[in-house]
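Hi V.,

You were right to ask for the full record rather than a summary. Here it is.
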Amino acid sequence: MAERSAPSRERIVAGAADMISRRGLSATSIREMAKHAKAPLGSTYHYFPEGKQQLATEAVRYTGEWVARSLRKELESGPVEGLRAFLALWRKIVVESDFHAGCPVLAVAIEEPPADEIPPAVAAAAEVFAQWEALLTASLREHGTEEEQAAQLATLVVAAVEGTVAMCRAKRSAQPLDDTAEQLQALIAGAIKH
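Predicted structure:
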């Protein structure tokens, strides 16, 4: 019975991702992440004995894979459709959170690491960004875009969307994302060979 009532590891990770997306990593304690996930602190340390950095790393990977699943599915219909889905996903997050949540991957990536150290969560963020770029690059290549241009466009898309999500939060408006969407769609449409 105790097993069933214990919070799942995934629920704790998802709660941590949400909390980091709202407050950043430095401003969030493991206690707050556990509370946000409605999990006892003991359960949180049971699943994440290395503490906050381990939980943050898992939260980044969880978000990365969640977004990648959506991207993979939508990119089957082509790069423009994949881009639209990527943009729609982030638009939904910022609007439904009343501009309080952004991307936990970005939130972790912009934290200042200790001197001469790359924390595991920051390394995970770099891997997630690379994964998203690789998915977009592959789709562009499959639709006739030259290799270097495909890679550069993929980087532009990820960077633009991540930056625009931050702008939406600051301006408390989805307009920056809508404007960015229009321009990115035009760039992608122009780069693919139908």
